[in-house]
Design goal:
Elements (H helix, E strand, L loop, with lengths): L10 H17 L6 H8 L3 H8 L3 H16 L4 H8 L3 H14 L3 H8 L5 H20 L5 H16 L5 H16 L2
Helix pairs in contact: 1-2, 1-4, 1-7, 4-8, 6-9, 6-10, 8-9
C-alpha cells in the first residue's frame, strides 16, 4: 500500500506526470523525448531528471504507481476512508487526480491492453482494486465486483462529473452494496 499522498507532491511533479501521459497518448508510446516533455512543461530537463531519472519509462511507471494508487485508493488514508464508510470523500479525491492529470483516462484505456510493462502495471492496479472491493464486500460475486469496478472507474473518467453527481452515484452504490 502506498504511503505518500498525492497532495504531498509539488505542482512541477504533477505537471511532468500529466504532460508525459499526454505526450504518450498524442505522439505514441515512448515516441516523445525528454526535450519534448521539458518544452511542454516549461520545466528544465535537470529537474525532470531529479524527479524521475533519464528514462521516459520511469516517468510513466511513476505516473502509474502514484496515480494508480490514488485512483484505486491503495493508500493508508484512502483505506481509512473506506473503513469509515466515507466512499464519497474517497471518490472526490479520486476526481481531484483526474483534474490534475486529464489525459489519465486515455492513457489507461490505451495502455491497459498492451502486452508490455506499462500495460502489466495498469492491469496490476486494476486487480488490486478488485481485490480491495472483494475485501470490503465479500458477499459480491465476480460479476458484481466487475460492475462496481466499472461504476467506480466510470465516475473517475466521466467528463463534467461534479461532486453532486458523484454524491448521487455513491448514494445509490452504497444502497446496492448494503443489500448484498
Amino acid at each position: 500500500m502506498a504511503k505518500e499522498g498525492w497532495g504531498q507532491k509539488d505542482a512541477s511533479f504533477w505537471k511532468i506526470l500529466s504532460s508525459a501521459m499526454e505526450l504518450d497518448v498524442k505522439k505514441g508510446h515512448l515516441k516523445w523525448t525528454l526535450t519534448d516533455l521539458s518544452r511542454k512543461t516549461k520545466i528544465t530537463r535537470s529537474l525532470i531528471y531529479y524527479y524521475f531519472g533519464r528514462s521516459k519509462l520511469s516517468i510513466l511507471n511513476e505516473a502509474i504507481e502514484l496515480i494508480g494508487d490514488q485512483f484505486t485508493g491503495q493508500t493508508e488514508e484512502r483505506y481509512e476512508l473506506w473503513k469509515k464508510g466515507m466512499l464519497l470523500e474517497s471518490m472526490i479525491r479520486t476526481r481531484e487526480i483526474y483534474d490534475k492529470a486529464p489525459y489519465i483516462s486515455q492513457f489507461i484505456l490505451e495502455h491497459r491492453v498492451q502486452q508490455n510493462e506499462v500495460g502489466d502495471r495498469i492491469r496490476s492496479k486494476e486487480r488490486a482494486f478488485r481485490a480491495k472491493l472483494k475485501s470490503f464486500y465479500p458477499n459480491l460475486d465476480k460479476d458484481q465486483i466487475q460492475a462496481v469496478f466499472s461504476v467506480y472507474w466510470g465516475m473517475c473518467f466521466a467528463p463534467g462529473m461534479t461532486n453532486d453527481g458523484i454524491e448521487r452515484v455513491v448514494y445509490f452504490l452504497k444502497k446496492i452494496l448494503k443489500s448484498n
